[in-house]
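re the bet — no i am not wrong, look at it urself. input seq straight from the record:
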Amino acid sequence: MFQSFDVTADPAQGVARIAKLRETFDRAGLDGYLVPRADEHQGEYVAPCSERLAWLTGFTGSAGMALVLRDRALLFVDGRYTLQAAEQTDPSLFTIESLIDNPPREWMAENLSKGARIGFDPWLHTIGEVRALEKAVARSGAELVPVDGNLVDDIWHERPASPLGATRIQPLDYAGETALDKLARLADAVHEGGADLTVLTDPSSLAWAFNIRGNDVPHTPLALGFALVPAHGRPTLFIDKRKLDRETEAYLTQLAELLPPSALEKTMAGLARDGMRIGLDPGLAADRLRRLAAREGAQIVDLDDPARLPRAIKNTIELQGARAAHRRDGAAMTRFLCWLDAQPAGTFDEIAVARKLEACRAEVGQETQMRLRDISFDTISGAGPNGAIIHYRVTTRTSRILGKDELYLVDSGAQYEDGTTDITRTVIIGTPSAEMRDRFTRVLKGLIALSRLRFPPGTRGMDIDPFARHALWQAGLDYAHGTGHGVGSYLSVHEGPQRIARTGTQKLEPGMILSNEPGYYKPGAYGIRLENLIVVEPAAPVGDGEIDMHGFETLTLAPFDRRLIETALLEPGERAWLDAYHARVFEEIGPMVDGEVHAWLERATSPLG
């Protein structure tokens, strides 16, 4: 299994750990300390040695921040994690606040005492984040204080070692462009951005630029490290050589000078003293790098990570790989859904079902000679009320039997060498209620609305997010998460800058892969989410219209549960889309399954009656 179901954090330890953290305040001259869920690379998925927030609080979500003061402690999480945070933390210790509606900067501006000193680790906060925090804290007369070292690390005596996962070359057959060509493109972008060099801090950018993949964090094939990319000259890659075999080291040596990560600060300091214009991405680069460069006399240039946008726009080879990965994944999902449909209620729990899904993926991978490299995130396997926890993580402590007449939500994905997948399906175990059918169909209408959408060049994710919510809004309903995130090419399942959400400001470009995943959640009862991955198509004429329009190609291939569809709520165009989609699923997945599974798929994809 690529996924562990063990309980990884213990809220019962919070009292002692918070007390130990507070004991460091006097020595450091502080009145409080910020503990984000972050590492030096600001990634969503972090190595065990960087799970400081989980160790301190018990909260294991992928986004959040704690503020520990002398007399109280707060945990800030977004809408995906409100229920989870309440369940995983000690309520006598932590007050749960909204990371969106009342983020730490706003809370501190309104509540800190004049003269209060709040410490932070500048390696764990971005430049932009620190700028906003400093401005907000100043409003209260308090002070934000950078601290050398990390106070949590000082009390975490059994902290895991830094990861040393093997790094391997991503073949050109899947990358579609040589690393030399990519690095040349990045150098041009640095020059055009008015900098002499930039620091790549995002390991996804390293993976893309150098055509490498690693094994340093869970479920995302990243090799942790940094790179200096100059406008002219040879890049420097900061990576631990213990991660490299002879072939990979020889390959990388042709592209860049190789130095250990510990040499980054000294190297940057030397360049800064030479008066370099150093480009740093305010939204990605650690504030520590800005402080170091500024202290040594460099001119800091705000420069977006030049690899981020080209990485998001998949080339022809990457899109071919994505389609192949989704056909493979669709066959695995079809086997799984057929199996699940045959199990009586009360037979299996959430963990057993998640194990079965991973086994189906592994089997199809073996049969197609494209093995399952990993899952792309911990499978969200939620039965009944657990499905209402948006980013629910099933554990041995929380696993629930799939009960009669309950909804079961499964959100999962896979990492294949040719592509990354992410799919959510919600099914009924037994007979659905009228309310379940109504809510499911409204969520389905939102997915279909985006799937059918045509939109002009320059459209942003925030412009189309309401289309996915419209059917829910008409019934006074909504969901507390974005509608879509970007997806990498055998990289992160959550990739920026593209997203479909109220905060999605990036223009949607041809080749960008996104998720399409509206939902509805009734706390204590059930959750519904439906998710396909889609790719932005080039703008093309629409009939005799005047403006060429983009559209979406759907990549995901798996049936929706017909028992949950209230056909009377669907308009003719929506029914036509769904029938055509199911016909395509049967056409492409049918040849990959046989026997009972083939017969089940034929029934599951037949036209709506």
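see?? The chain has a mean pLDDT of 95. told u. also Residues 11-155 form a domain with the Creatine Amidinohydrolase; Chain A, domain 1 fold (CATH 3.40.350.10). so pay up
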